[in-house]
Amino acid sequence: MSVLKTDKLNVGYNKKVLIHDIDLCIEKGEILTLIGPNGAGKSTILKTIARQLDNLGGSVYVDENDYMKIGGNEFAKKMAVMFTSKVKSEMLSCGDIVATGRYPYTGHFGLLSKEDKEEVAKAMELVNISDIKDNDFSKISDGQRQRVMLARAVCQDTDIIILDEPTSFLDIKYKLEFVSIIKKLTKEKNLTVIMSLHELEIAKKISDKIVCVKGDRIDKCGTPDEIFKDEYIRELYDIDDAKMSENIDILKI
Predict the structure, then answer these.
(1) Measured between alpha carbons, how far is 156 from 223 in angstroms, rounded to an integer?
(2) Domain that holds residue 42
(3) For the chain, how many structural domains are there in total?
């Protein structure tokens, strides 16, 4: 049974469809990665699936249920989201930020139970940030900040996590560390991950399925071996042979 499925989904802004007839099917424990040129609409697809943008047509099913018929709190127990926008920390510690991931479970008063605190601690340990739990979130490195936000999503205790360009602005060390944690999560928690990436070599190594976004459609969907062929990548990114030789690092980290 699929964890998430789209059926002829249309996405866009201001009631204008930018990408139409998106058909995706993601199973439990899979990593599905969207790739494509800048501005292709990868973030728009993710935000629509996460209900942060209006669905302009078609359907999205989560556990075979229409996602628009799932209540807000219940939806938050099924899907966690990590986008690249800055979080207003307001002098909060890293532990405080992670703890906000428990909001679907804390009720109106937002008080953490013993179980909530245990989930927060487990999430921080899982992504290796227990040692900075008391640090001011606004004063840590970009790599640490990304791990804190991932821990926040993890302790939300969902089956699905959506990540939009999670390795942007990270140096090579933190990129590799971050994707290693993602892979670990899918194995240990049987978590389903849907994300967008610019780094093609990372996408190739970490993903079970690759979705290529170009123009007003999904251009191609398949396994990394099916997608990552030089001639197709040239076509997807509009790179001629001369540019390919000049920019060969497009296929490297």
Answers:
(1) 29
(2) 36-65+77-229+238-251
(3) 1
